[in-house]
Amino acid sequence: MGLDLAEVLVMELQPIHAPPTSFAKKYLFTIDHKVIGKQFIWGGFLFLVLGGGLAMLIRWQWAFPHEPVPVVGDMFLGATQGRIGPATYNSIFTNHGLIMIFWAITPLLIGAFGNFCIPLMIGARDMAFPLLNMLSFWVWALSGAMVLASFVVPLGAAGAGWTTYPPLSTNVGMPGAGQSLMVGAIFVTGVASIMGGLNYVVTVIRYRAPGMTWMRMPLTVWGLWLTSILNVLFVPVLGSAGLLLLLDRMTGTQFFIAGSTGMGANAGDPILFQHLFWIFGHPEVYILILPAWGMVCDFVAFFARKPAYWYKGSVYAMTAVSVLSAVVYGHHMFTTGISPLLGTSFMLFTLIISVPAEMLFLNWLHTMWKGSIRLTSPMSYTLGVIWVFGLGGLTGLHLGTTSTDLYLHDTMWVVGHFHLTMASASFLVVFAGIAFWFPKMFGRMLPEKFGHFHCWSTVALLTLVFVGQIISGYAGHHRRLFDPYQYTFLEHLLPLNRWVSYFAFALAAIQGVYAVVFIRSVFAGKKAEQNPWEVGTLEWTECTSPPAVHNFDTIPVIVRGPHEYAHPEVRRVLGRDWISQTEPLGDSEQATGGAAAAGG
Amino acid sequence: MSSLSNPPAGDDPNWVAPVVQYDSPAKRQETTAWVGMVIFLASWGMMFGALFFMYGGIRARATEWPPEGLPAIPLFWPTINTIVIALSSVTLQWALISIRKGHRRKLTHGLVSTFLLGLAFVALQWKVWIDLNEIGLMHTSGFYGSVFYGMTWIHAAHVAVGIIALGWLCIQAVRLFYSAPRHLSIRLWTMYWHFVGIVWGIMFLTVYIL
Amino acid sequence: MKFKHFSHKLTSLLVWIWTIAITGVAWADVPKEKGWGMPTDASLDGHRVDWLINITNVFITILFVIMVIWIVWAVLAHNEKHTADYDHGDSKHHVMVALSISAFIFLVVDGNLFYNAAKDLTQAFWNFEKAEAAANHVKIEVQGRQWIWEARYEGPDGKFNTQDDAVTTNDIRVPVNAPIIIQVTSPDVIHAISFPNFRVKVDAVPGSVNQLWLQATKTGQFEISCGQHCGQAHYKMAGRLTVMEEADFKEWVAQKSRDSKQIYDENAQAANWGWTWRKY
Fold first, then answer.
1. Runs of H (alpha helix) within A154-256
2. Same domain for C51 and C140
3. Which CATH number fits domain B79-210: 1.20.120.80, 3.40.1180.10, 3.40.50.720, 1.10.260.40?
């Protein structure tokens, strides 16, 4: 009786509410984390299309400088006969960067997967603060509206680069409402990020099901949780930089203005902005990759049918990266005139931070080795992530080293590097996550064969495009140039740029096909079973596909970690190579395997 | 499906003993909200931290402060204001302690006092701004003016949010909404109010005095 | 009186023709690059950067190839037919192996990078003492502004921002085999003065003065590029660096100094943008 009472008591902590009935409460102003996650998917994809379109314009200009842009040129660039002009070009690359980071990757990787996966994977019915969760989506949507508004105001959209350095981003360089709206939008989306991050942090701390110790959580949750801690701590720094910049733009203060419009000894300091921006900016790139690392750790284990190699090591590595992320930021500022002491220290820390990342790679490689690899589409995407992140991460070494950075700073090497690590890896992980959780989200399957085709063609094209950029950077090709061929020393790179553009156009075309397949599968894909991947985490074993509104009929009790594959005892007793986190096995396994699982 | 009717035979240290460790749902939720508030304030602390970092960055390199031609910030009224806001933290803490013991009337008195002191703070701050404008220190007075006005504006905005919340809490308190076991909002807003007070303290020290 | 006046004008005219001719020669040709390699190295210390980038490329290629072979082998040999090993990889042995591999890679690759970068920075790129100690070093003040490079030489009086400073636009000339120390700032937005053929750049920040130095090992024309997004015409903020023989340089700078002296106006604030040479 006491045990059943306990069951009842545990349930009472998260009571089951009646599901919503009205359209507004079900799909618009929903507090259900699973629906909010899907809202972020749709919203994120929308901005991904916009950001990607802007990238295609950049590639067009570099392949066919000053030629009218087909189709789009007539629609949007009528004043210049379909050609892109210098000021427009500046707005294009500025908005491409900002939109991709804050309105595409963040909602897709963190908003969608964080919301959908965290409560399910830890055994909770919803987030700690469901109402705050709903608000975080709508605040994010408001920031998206501000971005769109910035395109249609007089004097044009923001154009100071995604890094928004003053004085160029103040009224000195970029007067007009467009830049102000964008800085405001960045502030508002920061607020949404903090709201979401706070929710994730508290939910993981307080709502793990009984038996779900920290070291039994899927590494996906670890990645998302560490990301949320970084979000909560460092987005406010960006917020303060943005706020001060807005004050400079709108009230006449002079935090970041110096030079002829400054006030001599009482002038502001533009470099201060860079400090604030990069104290946020470097943790931001880890914010965008930690969920990816967590998911790769899990997916490699799930599909190699082997426990995640040295689980604790992966946790330590991700934590070390999070802690170190704020002390490496100066490597973005090597050429700003910082002291040699700072220059050398930042170089040291930047090289050190590559070690935990290395360890993660080794863990992945060891997990795969002597496994029983099932090459499903999520696994294909995962291998693609390892490929692009390996390439990209290694090219970062040259940038973290001060002397080589003196040459490579502001070249396409930097652009290629962060597009491989941030854009390619994060987006491939989004695709991996979608391929993996699609059955759980929508109750249907994405076509497997298409997944493989999409994965490998995307990986190949991403590699060609961004390694091409790295090569051009090696040759000295600066970034953010309306017409690179004005420089004699860059003229000969036109053919290289043209090929990179062709590959980029092909890449975009394939994503277009993916979009069609994705939408079709949402509504008419093959119906999915409860656990098509034979994976032992809670969302697969304890919930239907898709889950009920309340997730779990009874809150599960967890008895082991998420990667118990290939256990010989399990094979003997249950006749399969996996066991869920909640299944009892019998006394023998509990005494030995349970302890091993608790420790490992 | 999960079942608790299969306890482990061995000594699994991770086995949860539900009845012994059980918290009531209300207490559990309170602790969750408290954790949320701590993280929220840490976040906000980072924002103010960034502002102090920004100020410190230039101040450390400045050869003279205030810069030539600009007045030093007078200390009389700001010191009064510091006392005002410190007092308001005392009254609010007293209000919290009172409701913990179930004294509803003392809660209302405490809340109203804090509310009035908060209003006084903002009013006095406004007076200081006007006074400074008259002696030539404006927000357009270069970095020196920007730092002073920028930081005090942002701080004042946070105080204003607190005052509005306090107003709402006063209304609820008068309606006898709070009791000894149920006063989570008071607890959380007290944390917020102390935070705003501490930020003022640091600001007073670094921007006004030093 | 009339003749003096006339000859004064004639001299000015001849001076201008000569200046334009010299400038024209300067704008002859920056060598065109070919292939995908780094731009022609015309510098004393640039080879250090080239070597470090290239050796690191070798290291990372080796690491990447090992990783790819490992993955492909695993996917092919340890496929679904292979029985997986139940191994959490958290035994002491496994942990030590993982940490050792990481440490080894770190020490070889990162260690090499750190050691060589620190050496190159202290011996060369940030070694301003060495540059200033050379008797034939040249100091140049540069103002990068939207969207040109203005340069200033101290002239015979040895002081900057005086009447005899030689001032040029988009045209920096230097003697070969001599340290050139450049201080740079901007009055409007952040720019960056970048010398691709010398592998160095530094930001031109409003409100502060930054410094770099370089030394050319061959004569010729080289491009100066702007390495920080600075607005609409950032893409054509190109300057010309001409490396000349010492004698030619001295002659040129003396002539430029005379030209600038003629048009000097002590009330033209914007034109007198120079500063007292900063000590670093």
1. 177-206, 219-251
2. no
3. 1.20.120.80
